[in-house]
Specification:
Layout lengths: L1 H21 L7 H7 L3 H5 L3 H39 L9 H9 L3 H10 L20 H33 L1
Helix pairs in contact: 1-4, 4-7, 5-7
Length: 171
């Protein structure tokens, strides 16, 4: 899906430049054109520098978004493999909260015991092998947690860049 978005952005940009070359006139207002594709309205008004700025910003924003989400997914795959190797985790079918929990506790037993003390029975993991984990040492658990946080940070960067893309369409 990310590759399709990049290809679509390049295709739309090429359409903008093609329109300028063959002088296609349109009844769409420049404001609406800029909302659809930033810079398009500026090109229509013969404001090439401004059009280039908005279009370039859009392309960079889309590229940064794709890069951020792909990097986040790659790191998530890495930390899940790391947990499988050093905490004996079965990674399939696990939700986000599970990955947070295994980064904060050395084992499922440690997690369950603490949540029993807090009387949070609904948060206890079941007593079966599917939900077990036991880190080989604290250093490995901390490395895992750092990878998970790094993945979250890249995902958050991608979301902020999406906000910038939306702002670029509004401006």
């Amino acid at each position: 899906t990310y590759k399709r978005k990049i290809i679509l952005a390049i295709y739309l940009a090429s359409l903008l430049f093609a329109q300028e070359q063959i002088n296609i006139t349109s009844k769409i207002s420049p404001v609406l054109k800029s909302v659809i594709i930033p810079g398009w309205g500026e090109y229509t008004l013969k404001k090439q520098v401004r059009g280039n700025f908005f279009l370039t910003t859009e392309i960079i924003g889309v590229a940064l978004t794709v890069i951020s989400f792909v990097k986040s997914d790659n790191i998530a795959t890495s930390y899940q493999a790391f947990a499988a190797e050093f905490a004996n985790v079965t990674s399939s079918g696990k939700d986000y909260q599970f990955w947070v929990d295994i980064g904060n506790y050395d084992s499922k037993n440690d997690y369950n015991e603490e949540h029993l003390r807090w009387r949070e029975i609904e948060n206890i993991y079941p007593e079966n092998a599917e939900w077990n984990w036991q880190w080989t040492n604290d250093k490995k658990r901390k490395k895992f947690e750092n990878l998970r946080i790094k993945s979250d940070q890249f995902k958050l960067i991608g979301k902020f860049v999406i906000g910038g893309i939306i702002l670029n369409h509004i401006v």
